[in-house]
Amino acid sequence: MPQPFGIRFESVCKKFGAVTVIPSLDLEIASGERLVLLGPSGCGKTTIMRMIAGLEQPATGKIYMGGRMVNDIDARERNVAMVFQNYALYPHMTVFENMAFSLKMRKLSKAEIGKRILAAADKLGLGALLERKPRELSGGQRQRVALGRAIVQQSPYFLLDEPLSNLDAQLRTGARNELVDLHETYPSTMVYVTHDQVEAMTIGQRIAVLNKGQVQQIGTPGEIYNHPANRFVATFIGNPQMNMLPVHIGDNGMVLAGQSLILPPGMMSELRQNIEHEAWLGIRPEGAVLQGPDDVGFNGGAGITIEGEYLRSEYLGAVFVHHVAVQQHRLQIAMPRPVSIPPHSAASVFVPFEQLHWFEQGESERRIPLSGQYSIITPSPGPVLVS
Fold first, then answer.
1. Are 280 and 361 in contact (CB under 8 A)?
2. Contacts of 159 (CB under 8 A, 6+ apart)
3. Arithmetic mean of pLDDT, 202-211
4. How far apart are CA 371 and CA 99, in angstroms?
5. Which DSSP state fits 172?
6. Three state DSSP letters for 45-86
7. What is the widest separation between alpha-carbon atoms in the chain?
8. Could you tell me which residues are beta bridge partners of residue 303?
9. pTM beyond 0.85
10. Suppose 374 and one of 57, 248, 249, 264 were both cysteines; which one would form an S-S bond, judging by CB atoms 3.0 to 4.6 Å apart?
């Protein structure tokens, strides 16, 4: 039985003229959840939101809201509240009047309008600003007014199209927390559009990662980060992004940038069941350890050791991002400490077996799922160079 305020797309296709922007979309949003549509510019995420709102119509397929097909339902009848990227406040109206406008159009009583606005203003810290006009507000205050205008509608559907993109970094952090708190207070079905992975990871209960109008993966932030469905998702989520290296899987191990590395027999067996010889090896920057020739040996258990050339480091406050060249490839290693390695000196990158991610080469570039149940072997002291 469909949930009371869920949203479902069934084989939805959207075209603008001869250009297909959504080839075929199947997506289900649970009633009352916070779903984030995440992807690069032009991937179709805003178009999906506009189809929910009724501002765009699908070429084919069906859209259901609350169990009812809404393809032919006018936008005004869908009971949807939206927050736009540019806030869309009326400049000649006060904060109170902006928040009250949609309620007046619905012919609510003055008492009910005042009650809703005061409750939302108290929650958003707008009580002292109700008589000001938008030009007298900061960017963060305008953003809260736009949220308040949507909240007072008490709609079962709450759509947000990159509402924080105009705020500076400090304001965005506070606004993300406010949005999560607001959703817990007003548990409507929230669909949030963004290209910012940090917003997606901190706001979304689930994330739908899109590329070229197609859902690449949908899951919780933890599922998306730890078990990306394909190479695109793996490199789109994470900052710094996941390192990707082409490798050749041989009979006894793998060859990476001219270095022959030994893998556990169980891992080798599973890899050969899924691929012929070529694959992508993914390494999260925080999943590896960098050491120079004079540093103490590794104490990270079983794994692989990749030899390279240390280039430089970036200090980001919480971490150092170290850059290492491995032939024509570059690895980024995120660590909480600096390293005493002169630039352009030899360096070793150690990666535990459990931190290795595998992806097919070819059109799909899908993740190769491995069991992780391998007998522990002692890592070799270093790679063997292959001519």
1. yes
2. 49, 52, 53, 80, 81, 82, 83, 190, 191, 193
3. 96
4. 54
5. H
6. HHHHHHHHHCCCCCCEEEEEECCEECCCCCHHHCCEEEECCC
7. 82
8. 352
9. yes
10. 264
